[in-house]
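Hey, I was hoping to borrow your eyes for a little while. No rush at all, and the record is pasted right below.
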Amino acid sequence: MPRLPEHSVIFRLSNQNSLAIQQQKSEWLSDSAIVVQMLSAGVCGTDLAMLSGARPCRATVLGHEGVGIVRYAPEDCEVSKGTRVIVNPVHRKQPHIVIGHSCDGVFRELFSMDAADALDGGHLVACPSDCRLEDAELALAEPLGSVLYSLELLHERCGNSSLLIRGSGTVAVLAAKLWSSFTGNSAIVVSQSEAHARWLRESTNWPANVRICGIAELNNAIRSAGPEFNAGILCCSRESALQGLGTLLDTVPENTTVDLMAGFPVDYKEERLGGIDLDRVRWNNICGVSGSPPTAVVDRATGKTVYLTGHRGTAERHILQAIELLSRGVVSLADVPHRLLRLEQLPGAVNEMLSTQSRHATKWVKAIVVFSRENGGALNVAI
């Protein structure tokens, strides 16, 4: 029976919109538990949406993009002690169960879950033993896996097309660089802020066929981009999702397919598209194991037919492909303006990212917590 020692955890405070570091008391766990010592954890826009109140959340510990090393596992478990693992947060059979959303997440030194639940949900993906990626770099594996899922869905329908991306965070950066690399076609990243677009253009190296622009510059960017845009991704913040969708609908041509990665208010019906439930569309494809074809809708404002698709979670194969791409340097953490944090710095960094006064001055789009790799002291799991 494993005993989880006292360890540091980032909890949501009672007001639900800020974080604080606290000590979790020691406790004994069931023999069926898997205990993972966290090595790195990414901060996602979804975490910020839950803290701002834009998205509902039941978890008191957030964090769903995690990398760790197994410190205890039952003998008959599919992951063994010493294995480095990627947390795959969405349950592949019950997609309403999401680590860091509906149950507690990985912003903590030690994370545990029942081995049967981990297996049934596909929540832990073993990193290949020959992987030499640093822990912080590997924190991109899950979000990059989600991007690969999106591009897979779009490429099936759109083939030789340029890609229009409304959003300018981590997903947008990764999607633009991968689409450019995979297809050789253009991608345009559209930021709501002209100032942010200028900063993003200068903050990383971009392929020649990727353009970064604000909304006011979009038409000029499209005219110089090459092949027609028959593929789109909506990946802006939940607060900007409705406006962002409008931008895409106003811009894309007939028969474009758009992947809705951004979230929408619960039960929201888009009257411009005939009252369709946009969040339901986002559940069209689940963790790479079940799927539905894109939904054809007519835009009442323009008369165009567009196709909407979406996905929730990602599959093990996407995460393993992401690790392979990161290992080969096709994309890297250096491609994403980022900040590395210690766990105790996370509450302050999140406050900066949420503040209307300071968020536009932050010089990163991705924050990653890097934990100590020390195996001694309090982080040893007593058996």
Remarks:
- Residues 141-158 form the longest helix (18 residues).
- The radius of gyration is 21 Å.
- The first strand starts at residue 3 and ends at 4.
- The chain has a mean pLDDT of 92.
